[in-house]
Amino acid sequence: MQLFFVNLRQALPRSIWDWVILFFLLLGTLFFLMPIYVMVVTGLKQAQNVSLSTMWQLPAQLSGGGFIEAWRRLYPNLGNSLQLTIPATILSSILGAINGYIFAKWKFRGANTLFAILVFGMFIPYQSILIPLIQFLEQIRLYGTIWGLVLVHVVYGLPICSLIFRNFFANIPDELVEAARIDGAGVIRIFWLVMLPLALPAFVVVGIFQFTNIWNDFLFGVTVLPNPNAQPVTVALNNLSGSFSVDWNVVMAGAVIVALPTALIYILLGRFFVRGLLAGSVKG
Amino acid sequence: MPTANLQVSRPRRASAQSSRKRFSGEKVLPPLILVPSMAAIITFVYIFILITVWVSLSRWGTLRIDWRLRDPWFETYSQMFAMPRWHADLRNVFVFTALFLSGSIGCGLLLALFLDRRLLGYTVFRNIFLFPYALSFIVTGIAWRWIFNPETGINLLFDGLGINKWLTSIGAAPLKPGWTTDPSVLLSVNDALGHVFPAARSLTVHLGIPIALIPVVVAAGWQLTGFAMSMYIAGLATVPNELREAARIDGANEFQVYTKVVLPMLRPVTVSTAIILGHVSLKIFDLIFAMTGVGPGFATDVPGIFVFDMTFKATRYNLGAAASIVMLLLVACVIVPYLWRNLRRN
Hints:
A: 12 helices; B: MetI-like fold; 15 helices; globular
């Protein structure tokens, strides 16, 4: 309970304003939870009970609702998503760690310019590189394959991963690097023996951040993988809801299924999640 | 959706002048290690952008690849800027950005200030407000599409809460907006603008707030207000308590402590948040694609969707490329000064 009441006496509302604030916070909670409620409740209903006039009501009887059908239709794509998200996350974390280490600890002339060139890459609208990207992937015969999509996510994940790692390594005292140098360690050995053992928290932050980003991606999935059987689950979910006769209980159940992995990460590892999101911000 | 922030902390630099024996590797190796990543980024970002620019100037407007330039070379851009659909897209993306930014930053700040009181349930509230950020835009779009279904959802809530009963009892029309199916535009300024720029009168597109765009703003706000709130919570943590105490001792009341001391110190946070959320909203695609598509009369169409339609559905590659370059320029206007300011400091 310590989480909830850090200091109970201080946490209790003291004035009328505190009650007003608490009221608005509760109102906000209703707003933020409402779509979740609608998704879960609609997903649990049977198709014949999904009617427009009863969307706010709980399901009449407890059953699998749309979940069975949604699972049947989405689970091949869930597999695709995992197959592409996990290697892409691991690879971009490793590359990000290496780049971040160099940018933080081995500055050379022009390193800052290089860093700016790198970081700008994470802000571009990816629409502006899609045509050459697809041509390039066709040339190297990776167009339409999951490995092609892995490559895309690793490359476009480089800026953010390098940035987070650079900020992390920058806060590790230089004395550590110096001491290792006196002992005769070089660039690579310092990374391997001194930095990597310290970098576990940064790997967790970057890992969560990249996993969430890649899992939630839609644009690359829909353009690089035209074959529906190979597409990631976000694309499959959108296809599910875009078909002509929409079974809303199935679509909503599908949305819950797609949301579940990142939602679980958020619930279990929220602290690291926030750190990734702030990515070293504010604290200048 | 990568919305990472950038204010990097100053790296402490290994002093190069240290008298110890330097390995020649220490000079050559670090840049060498960066070569593969930098080569990838320069190819996949900068060279690809240049190719897209070329495509946008080329005659490649069908399935057959044609790299020859058009005559005049900016012909595709002229065509695009004459399209009413493109006018609607630009209107939508600017209106969306303005509404979404003010909404999510305002609400995010408010929630952060409320939470700053550290009342009971602090952690629970904070986690719930940020939760949607972890979800895919596709999930968000689908959920809100159902909620804003004009036959159901929000409109049923209006009935249920008795708002419509009350409205009809005072003689007003019941509140039954068509939401995402409504093609009308609120607060159209074409006529007013026509006094200054006569060209505005001849626009087929109404400049105003498309009703169908409002649900999209709500959905985007639902997803990203938590981000703004987290930024402000982190910012508030850097305002030292002594400062607030000092203000209180000087006779400031609680309200003044916030308006005079805390808020001015949050200015940089607001700038960062606005830039990050602003560039997300200029690029917005998935959410609208899943929620409303182009909308009635292009009421919710945005450049992101225009590019997708032109490139992958209509196979008018040069037109899609031209629109994507305009998107890139819009984003660059926001991001480049920000990067410049933040990275120069190091």
